Amino acid sequence: MSEALYRDDAYLRDAPAEVIGLTAEGGVVLSHALFYPTGGGQPGDSGRLEWGGQSLTVATTVKGEGGVSVLVPAEPAALPPVGTQVRQVLDWERRHRHMRVHTALHLLSVVIPLPVTGGQIGAGTGRLDFLMPEPPSDRDALEQALNLFVARDLAVTETWISEAELDAQPDLVKTMSVQPPRGAGRIRLVRIGTATEQVDLQPCGGTHVAWTGEIGRVKIGKIENKGKQNRRVNISLA
């Protein structure tokens, strides 16, 4: 199994690793995964691998068997053989924008306290789909409320609970379309605020900023009708 460095430290920009596998499709699996694999609406990380004077551009990262990160080359190229010691270098600017948008979407789910039916994170933009038969009456008020949470510079931390504990607290799961991964025996929760002054707490496996102030100003864009019961709320980093 590969160790998920992206989960232990979302701010880590480069790290050594050993190649432990090559996929039939031309992907690379490392002993220590710095690159986040596509999942939960968040795109896979990009960057490069370096070894022995050679370099390989990584276009994206996907989940392989057992949930490991599989690095997908940008173009066909010679891959580092199994056992090679490599240095993985993250496209940090892109990852950091994902972190800012992802955390902003958590706050959006607080500002609009309705069931979430879908979502997508981009490098500077994002959206959530809500079970919302009628559009919000005041978009400016929503944007103001969202940016007030950002300006409070709240701590963003993680905690873990068992699958049984999550079953006993089903309201923690806001997203109807994506359920937390099971099978490991425990579930990662992302908290915004403190345990005594909590703003949000929900299962999530993605990467986030450490403080909401790091998000920067957020704009609420178009609110789209996505069916009789659904509305899509788009956001962007200002």
Overview of this protein structure:
One of its GO terms (cellular component) is cytoplasm. Residues 1-238 form the Alanyl-transfer RNA synthetases family profile domain. The chain is an alpha+beta fold and 238 residues long. It folds into two domains: 3-90, Elongation Factor Tu (Ef-tu), domain 3 (Beta Barrel); 95-237, Threonyl-tRNA Synthetase, Chain A, domain 2 (2-Layer Sandwich). The chain has helices at 5-8, 92-111, 139-151, 163-167, and strands spanning 3-4, 14-22, 28-30, 32-33, 47-51, 54-63, 69-73, 85-90, 116-121, 125-131, 156-162, 186-193, 198-203, 218-225, 230-237. It has a six-stranded antiparallel β-barrel. A four-stranded antiparallel beta sheet has the order 9-10-15-14, covered by helices on one side.
Helical segment count: 4
Question: Cα-atom Rg, whole angstroms?
Answer: 19 Å
At the fold tier of CATH, the topology name of the largest domain is Threonyl-tRNA Synthetase, Chain A, domain 2
Per the principal axes of the C-alpha atoms, what is the gross shape? globular
Described by its quaternary structure, the protein is: single chain
Distance between the termini: 39 Å
The major sheet is characterized as: 6 strands, antiparallel, barrel
Low-confidence stretches: none
CATH class of the largest domain reads: Alpha Beta
Counting structural domains, the number is 2
Beta-strand content:
35-45%
Q: Approximately how much helix is present in the residues?
A: 10-25%
Q: Find the CATH superfamily of the largest domain.
A: Threonyl-trna Synthetase, Chain A, domain 2
Number of strand elements: 15
